[in-house]
Cupin domain-containing protein
Amino acid sequence: MPTAQDWIDALALEPHVEGGYFRRTFQADHRPPIATPAGERFTLTSIHYLLTHWSPVGHWHLNRSDILHFHHHGDPVTYHLLHPDGRHETAVLGQDPRRGEVLTLAVPGGVWKASHLTAGDHGLISEAVAPGFDFADMTLGRPDELTALFPDHEELVRRYCRAGGPDAPAG
């Protein structure tokens, strides 16, 4: 069975600012761009994304675009979602429906998201983003700002915010 390092090498993955590793796999540059309040975007982009036992957390972040997540290989990945109304939702992306794991997870734009490797060596997923992803459309979570928005979830917020804040180095 391939290891986390095997996937990093085979897919030429690089460290992601939110944690884990990624590589863009598609952008719809053959179609006219979409106008958004933040500027023009591709209609769709996609990435491979990998969490590993040494980089097991995708730290809190907010995207403007809708994102579909697909589990491909390895161990389950748990997602925590904080909705604008304060509601907390969890989902486990994985290969075993008997354990309540799902192959696909849709996260609407405007929902705060954090993920972590549930157990094991790695979890490999892909994401399809519409309108297409642009780093200008992503906000990394700051503990004090998120606890002010979600006071009922302070422990969860602090657990998955990057130590040292969003400007700390990934890894």
